[in-house]
Design brief:
Layout: H1 2-12, H2 16-85
């Protein structure tokens, strides 16, 4: 009976080595979590920059296509007017 009681008491106490390992593991997990957050922030910034560039390029493309369409329409109208006048 005394042996069982002694075994139970020794199992419940945590050694300093176990506490130290737990602290080290906790710090390591904290660093991993912090690094993951930094990577996510970097991805988000890059995605925002890319979206900005794409929006600007889209505006330029739309402006060029409108100008191109207007030029084609003017050419057709001028040629059409020449044909009617002739």
């Amino acid at each position: 009976m005394f042996g069982a009681l002694l075994g139970t008491l020794s199992q419940s106490s945590t050694t300093t080595a176990q506490k130290r390992r737990a602290d080290i593991e906790k710090k390591r997990l904290g660093k991993v979590h912090e690094r993951n957050e930094e990577l996510e922030d970097e991805k988000r910034r890059k995605r925002e920059q890319l979206d900005t560039v794409r929006r600007n390029e889209q505006k330029i493309w739309e402006a060029q296509s409108v100008n191109s369409f207007s030029t084609v329409n003017r050419t057709v109208l001028i040629r059409g007017a020449d044909t009617i006048a002739t």
